[in-house]
């Protein structure tokens, strides 16, 4: 149910910021969440750092109000915490006005007919997230669409955070100036990563920072999933760095792809060490067989009958004769001149045919 404040008929929502209760006005006409003087006074003791900005906003009565600055506030609604970028406008009376950014980031829907609201349970699909698919992690899952167009496959929820992520988030909130490349949106951390080439949309350069607990899911989604198609290391890296960031992600991706059982079984190029091993083994076998055949030590004895390769003359006059000439001529071994060289004699006439290498001699 909505809360009400001072008989004000408008819908209020009770939230908690740094453990302090706030009653915020749910204003579907406001594009931005705004904290007024009463709310800001409550937060002064928390040493929040505010980014100054030279904006002004138009309020309901038509007047212009100066924006003192912006601050990222971790707002808790029931069990859900989202860091909402909030404008500080001291001219506003309400403690806090929740704009549509809050509605969207908190994923709430309201029914004014019975003054109720609830968290939207179904996964919200953002139209410009072509690859959006629901991966459920814990109770709530949200596809944020504010900063990065690429995030889609996973969403960081309160149940999926690890200490590294929580510490980073706290540091970003407390010392935003020390983390200029990080931003919080929808409770998620984004990092600005530009690889030096221009991108069409700056939002593409903001990558969703992945907590340790979800990195395996990202790897799985971007490599193993049927739609991911088991791409190689470089393509998987490209796909993941498009959307996500975590320290050491390159090595993690390479290790993951190399260890993929499906890839090992299907794609030869993925298993270079294996292939090399096979090649080495096969070469060894072939070479052994080759050597066994070619270098088989043969010793011919004197008087042994063998066949000598018949090198015929190749000039035109002898052409037909050479075509018809026998390939081998029957001989006898006359003399052994060295390990591989023998003097042969014609089998019929006994006339010496000169010296021949073992490669031209065939056994009978
Ligand atoms: Zn694979």
Automatic annotation (TrEMBL):
Q: Could you tell me which InterPro entries the record lists for this protein?
A: Integrase_H2C2, Peptidase_A2_cat, Peptidase_aspartic_dom_sf, Retrovirus_Pol_polyprotein
Q: Which SUPFAM superfamilies match?
A: Acid proteases (SSF50630)
Domain of life of the source:
Eukaryota
What keywords is this UniProt entry annotated with?
Answer: Endonuclease, Hydrolase, Nuclease, Nucleotidyltransferase, Transferase
Q: Which residues form the Peptidase A2 domain?
A: 22-102
As recorded in UniProt, its EC number(s) are 2.7.7.49
Which Pfam families does this UniProt record tie to the protein? Integrase_H2C2 (PF17921)
Protein name, UniProt field:
RNA-directed DNA polymerase
Source organism: Molorchus minor
Question: What taxonomic lineage is listed for the species of origin?
Answer: Eukaryota, Metazoa, Ecdysozoa, Arthropoda, Hexapoda
């Amino acid at each position: 149910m909505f809360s009400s404040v001072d008989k004000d008929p408008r819908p209020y929502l009770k939230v908690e910021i740094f453990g302090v209760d706030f009653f915020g006005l749910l204003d579907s006409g406001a594009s931005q969440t705004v904290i007024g003087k009463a709310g800001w006074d409550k937060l002064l003791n928390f040493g929040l750092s505010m980014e100054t900005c030279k904006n002004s906003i138009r309020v309901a009565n038509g007047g212009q109000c100066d924006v003192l600055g912006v601050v990222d506030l971790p707002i808790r609604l029931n069990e859900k915490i989202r860091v909402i970028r909030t404008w500080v406008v001291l001219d506003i009376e309400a403690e806090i006005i929740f704009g549509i950014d809050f509605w969207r980031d908190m994923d709430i829907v309201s029914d004014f007919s019975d003054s109720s609201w609830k968290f939207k349970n179904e996964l919200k699909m953002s139209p410009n997230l072509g690859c959006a698919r629901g991966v459920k992690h814990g109770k709530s899952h949200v596809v944020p669409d504010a900063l990065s167009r690429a995030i889609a496959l996973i969403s960081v929820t309160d149940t999926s955070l690890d200490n590294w992520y929580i510490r980073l988030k706290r540091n970003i909130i407390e010392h935003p100036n020390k983390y200029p490349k990080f931003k919080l949106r929808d409770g998620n951390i984004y990092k600005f990563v530009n690889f030096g080439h221009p991108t069409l949309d700056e939002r593409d350069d903001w990558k969703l920072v992945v907590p340790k607990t979800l990195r395996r899911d990202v790897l799985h989604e971007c490599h193993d999933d049927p739609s991911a198609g088991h791409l190689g290391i470089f393509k998987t890296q490209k796909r993941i760095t498009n959307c996500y960031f975590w320290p050491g992600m390159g090595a993690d991706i390479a290790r993951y792809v190399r260890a993929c059982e499906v890839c090992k079984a299907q794609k030869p190029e993925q298993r270079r060490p294996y292939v090399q091993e096979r090649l080495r083994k096969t070469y060894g076998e072939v070479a052994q067989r080759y050597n066994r055949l070619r270098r088989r030590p043969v010793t011919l004895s004197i008087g042994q009958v063998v066949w000598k390769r018949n090198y015929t003359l190749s000039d035109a006059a002898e052409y037909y004769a050479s075509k018809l000439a026998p390939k081998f001529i029957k001989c006898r071994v006359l003399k052994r001149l060295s390990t591989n060289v023998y003097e042969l004699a014609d089998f019929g006439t006994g006339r010496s045919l000169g010296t021949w290498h073992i490669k031209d001699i065939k056994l009978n």
